[in-house]
Each structure stands twice: as structure tokens, then as C-alpha cells.
Amino acid sequence: DSGVTQTPKHLITATGQRVTLRCSPRSGDLSVYWYQQSLDQGLQFLIQYYNGEERAKGNILERFSAQQFPDLHSELNLSSLELGDSALYFCASSPPRGNTEAFFGQGTRLTVV
Amino acid sequence: LAKTTQPISMDSYEGQEVNITCSHNNIATNDYITWYQQFPSQGPRFIIQGYKTKVTNEVASLFIPADRKSSTLSLPRVSLSDTAVYYCLVGDPMFSGGYNKLIFGAGTRLAVHP
User: What region does B100 belong to: left with phi over 0, alpha with psi -120 to 50, or beta?
Assistant: First the structure.
């Protein structure tokens, strides 16, 4: 158990819909990272937050948004879903010093039908 | 961030030692080298991190030559359960604020055969 909690574990929804994925980082970790991994593909970095503020942005679509709340949990919002958005979405957290040892959650498997 | 290059795939047999090399020609002075392991449908898991020479833990060894332009992850006596994707990342862990994005490359897909 990495200490990073992601909910829900599985999500099935229809095209055009909007979903919210939630991530609770490890206790004491201030950084949260979001990744998308399509079937048999690599990990695509989406966005990173540090202590409530956006720190870095990767290949995140305009239909996607995220935020980190004062209690440090983070949510990734995906809207106007398309079939191609079906993927595993991972959240990771790391300690305040920005150590490259990050701890990953078990992911949310999103299926868009 | 320094770009990394790894072999796309490797094959091995149970009981053998596996060495996966990562090239990072543009590594910066403050950068550390970190390796992660990922099993199918699971999040990546930290394996080992080093700055120079050799680092060893209960899972693997990491060899880094003096010029630090490459590194080699060594897995001793692999088993079927070591079949996974292995990622090499380079970044500065001392920079506050977690700036380093944690960009993963394509990784090396290791297949261990009976």
C-alpha cells in the first residue's frame, strides 16, 4: 500500500458525460501529480500541484481540469468525454522537498462507452 | 529535464541477472537517477535512486559511471514476477516544490521466461 488513495477504482460512463476522479495523497506530501495511461501505452503526465497551486502542466486537454484543495486532496475533472479518453488515470504524491521518489495510487480505470 | 533513452524491450530467463541501461547525456549536476517498476494495471513503484557510483538495496543495484551520462539497473536472479516495465527518470530531488514533473519515458518492457 503506497498510502495514496484514488477513488473510484472503476468508472464506466457514456460519451459526452463528465466525471470527477479523486486522489488523497500520502500524509505530509504536498505535491500531487496526475497521469493518463491508455492501453499498452506509456504514462502521460497531465498536471502537477504543489500545496494547492498548479506547478506544472503536461499534455492535458482543455476538456480536462484539476485542482488541489486546502486539505491537499486533488480532483481531476474530465468533461465531454470521448471514447479515446478511456484509460487508467494515476495519481501520485511526493514529499515537500520535491524528491523524485513519488508514490502512486492504484489508479482509476475509466471506460467511456 | 534530462531526456532518457532505454531499450524498448528485453527478454531473460529465470535465475539470470538482468541489466537495463539508460542513457541520459544531458544530465545536470544536481540531477539524481531514479528507477521505477510498473506491473500491468498498477501504478509505478519506486525501485532505487542514486547520484554516482553504485547503490544497492534489497531489490536491485544501480551502477552510475563517473561521467553520469548513463546508468544501469541490475536485477539479480530474476523470477517470473519481475516481468514488468522499468522506467528510468532523471531529475533534481532537492528542488523545493516538486518541480520536476516526473516525466516518464517509454520504459523497458522486461519479459522473464521460465
Answer: alpha
Contact between A19 and A11 (Cβ < 8 Å): yes
Q: Report CA Rg, chain A.
A: 13
Task: Tell me, letter by letter, the H, E, C secondary structure of A47-111.
Answer: EEEECCEEEEECCCCCCEEEEECCCCCEEEEECCCCHHHCEEEEEEEECCCCCCCCEECCCEEEE
Residue from the list B43, B93, B98 with its beta carbon closest to the beta carbon of A55: B98
**Whether A38 contacts A87, CB under 8 Å:** yes
**CA atoms of A68 and B7, how far apart (whole Å):** 36
Averaged over B85-89, what is the pLDDT?
94
Q: Are strands B84-91 and B70-75 parallel, antiparallel or unpaired?
A: unpaired
Query: What percentage of chain B exceeds 70 in pLDDT?
Result: 90
The three cell numbers locating residue B19: 541489466
Percent of chain B with pLDDT over 90: 70
CA dihedral sign, ordered A107, A108, A109, B1: negative
How many angstroms separate the CA atoms of A41 and A100, rounded? 22
Kindly tell me the sign of the dihedral angle through the C-alpha atoms of A77, A82, A85, A87. Answer: positive
Assess B13–A contact: CB distance below 8 Å, yes or no. Answer: no
Q: Tell me which residue in A43, A58, A100 faces B93 most closely, judged by beta carbons.
A: A100
Q: What's residue A98's pLDDT? A: 52
